[in-house]
Structures are given as structure tokens and as C-alpha cells.
Amino acid sequence: MWLRMGVITGLLAVALPVAATAAPPAPQDRFRLKPGARGKLCLSCHTTFQDTLSRPFVHTPVKAGDCADCHDPHASSHGKLLAADAAAICSSCHAGLVPDKAQSVHAPVVAGQCIRCHDPHAAKNKANLIAAGNELCTGCHAEMAKTIAQVKFRHAPVAGNCLGCHDPHASGKSAFLLKKAVPALCNDCHRADQPAFGKQHMNYPVSKARCTSCHDPHGSNNAGILWATIHPPVVNKMCNQCHPEASSPNALAAKKPGFELCRGCHSAMVNETLSRNRVHWPVLDKVGCRNCHSPHASARKALLREPAGRLCGTCHADTIGRQEKSLVKHAPVQEENCATCHSPHASDNVFLLQGRNVVDLCVTCHNWKEHSNHPIGEKAVDPRNRNLTLDCLSCHRSHGSPFKSFATFDTGADLCVQCHQGVRR
């Protein structure tokens, strides 16, 4: 008898904690809906929703009539009577779409805008996608679609499906949402052990190289889908001009470091650069010209690795950031033409300016005499610092300003009294 009671007591002791941690009731049960109510009750008002349910792909909660999985039937702080923020609702079921330490995440996923691609109720396409295949992607990436439509040579997977190379949500392995890093992704289709592949690449071991240093992965007007601007040695298949022979153990290494490699062909430019008083530091380090230029091919003129503004911004992020936050923006910076004012390689002037001084540079675009008779130049001493002379930058910010006319201070009250303190009120 006592043994039996002890067993029962022990079982109760085990069972009670389980009951205490039981899962909360499902949303449908939480609202104590009438038997059979569920989705049918909602459809009694939302009659046009029947057309949505007739689509071939219906979201699982909708198919089960579990409207309250996503919506609060009474009131909500969110639009469409959503029970929570839309992103939180989706992730409650679809967790794990973004891997830990993801290398790249699709912008709609970051913004929690799942409905940019998916219909939350039903759709004509798998995964409840609002459009099929590339049509969905080109809805946002219209400029890319336009470019691909105009090129002579298109990469075959692009014509098929963007998802052949890209993950629509996030990638834990590469930038640009690529399913694998380059060249592993490319090697899935392009067999480097085939004789034709080796011949096309001068028998260099490119299967371990970054394919996109030469090829546009979407399409190009150049055969072999090479980028728009191609380095002449690549065009002429003279790889050994910069690299050791293909049979060398280090075939993909450069023959010389830094600008010394480029000097063989670009001697005049290198000599001119080194003759200046101030040289842009990326020219002189061990990477040299390749800090800014692609050695093989590029989508941009002068073989630039990135659009000029973005390229300069990799080092000068504070300057680009100031321009973006500024109320008044300087056109050359806005248009990513940093070289309008600065020499990218070297100059005899401070800040690598293209002009002899600030005034000479600015007057190439701005005739200051038309809007001001304020003295500037070598004879006009700055009263705030007797070691300086007054020039355009004494009153204006060249990379943007929160005040009109690129002024350093509010022109209505504060600018002039920086020097003319006798009239300060």
C-alpha cells in the first residue's frame, strides 16, 4: 500500500512540472471562438477573400483557417489588425532564414518587408511569391534588367533564374547574396579541367582565382562576358606581361610589387606622379595602383574598382558622410567626380588640389567677382589666424554644408562675425 502511494506520489511530482510548463493555447483557442468558427467566421464578412483562396498556393495558416495566427480579431496597434509587427509574425514560423554571421542580407529582409516578395495569404507562384522567376527580381532591380536586355552576350543563368546564383534572403558565405563564394560558385558550371577552358585562359590556374575580376557575371557587350573596360594585356592574352609563365608554381602572382609592375607600360604617368611634392599614399604602398584600379577588367573607365565616389569613400568615409548629411551639396561630390578638384595620383598643392591654390581651383567653375567684393587671395590676411590668407574655404565648405551657399556658419547672423567681431550683437 505504502509502496503504491510512493509510486503515485513520485509520478505526480514528475507530472506537475510538465503541466506547469505546458505550451500556451493556440491563437484560435485564446479567443475562445465558437466551434467551427475559425476561418469560416472571418469569411462571412471578407467574402471577396474566396478568390484569394482559389489560388494554387495558399499560406499554411490561411489554408487551416487560422487567421488569428497573424491577426488580432478585436484591435491592434499595427495595420491590418496584425497581432504584432509583420517581421516578428513571419519570423515566428520562418526562423533561420538569415544565418548567423551572414555575409550579406537582402534589403527587404533587413527591413522586415517580407510582403515585398511574398503574398501573406495566397499566390499563383510557389513560396507564395507575388511574381514568378526573374520578373520578381527585376521589379526592384530594374536598372540591372535594362542593362542585361541591351548587352550582346548574356550569362546563361541570368536568362534562367536569378536564384541559380543568389539566395533570396541571405548568404552566410559571400557578398551579393551569392550561394557560394567566387570561384566555387562558378566552378559548379565551368569545369576548369576541360581542355577548352584551359586554352581560353592561356593554361593559367584560374579555377582558384576571382572570376569576376575579368568577367561580368550578368552579361556584357564583350565576348566572354568580359567587363566593359579591359586592360590591353588581357585583350591581347599577354598574361605573362604581368604574371610569371602559366607553368610557374606562383603563376597568378605579380612579377613586381606595387607601382613598379605598372611602370613598365605607364612609365610617363608614374614618373610624372613621383615628381610631385605630394603623392596620394595608395600609389606608394605595396599594393600600389591596384588599390584603386582593377588589373584585368572593370565596368568603369580607367579600370576603376568602384564608382569614384564610393572608391574614394572607402578611405574618406567622413567626407562622403558629411556630404550625404548636408543640406546643400557640392555638385562634383554629388556626381562622384572627386577628380574635378583633386588629383587622384599626385599634386604640388595641398589636399592634392588640381589648382595652384583654392581660389584658382574654385574660379574654374565659380566667378566669385559676380557675387562678392570680399577681399580674398594672397594679400588678404585671415584675422582669425595671421598665418593664413583668406580664400573660398574661409567661408565655404567644399564638401557640403547645413547652410545655404555652402557657408561654414549661418549667413544671416553668425558667418560674418567670425571675423568682424566688432559688429557682433
What does this structure look like?
The protein is mainly alpha-helical and 425 residues long. Helix content is 30%, strand content 5%. It has 20 helices and 10 strands. The strands form 5 sheets. A two-stranded antiparallel sheet has the order 1-3. A two-stranded antiparallel ribbon has the order 2-5.
Number of strands: 10
Low-confidence stretches: 1-23
Average pLDDT figure: 88
**Adjacency order of strands in the biggest sheet:** 1-3
For the largest beta-sheet, the strand count, sense and barrel status come to: 2 strands, antiparallel
Distance between the termini: 100 Å
Helix-residue proportion = 25-40%
Report the β-strand fraction as a percent range: under 5%
Task: Classify the secondary structure makeup into a structural class.
Answer: mainly alpha
Global morphology? flat
- Radius of gyration (CA) equals 32 Å
Listing every helix as H and every strand as E from the N terminus to the C terminus, the arrangement reads HHHHEHHEHEHHEHEHHEEHHHEHEHHHEH
Counting DSSP H or I runs of 4 or more residues, the number of helices is: 20
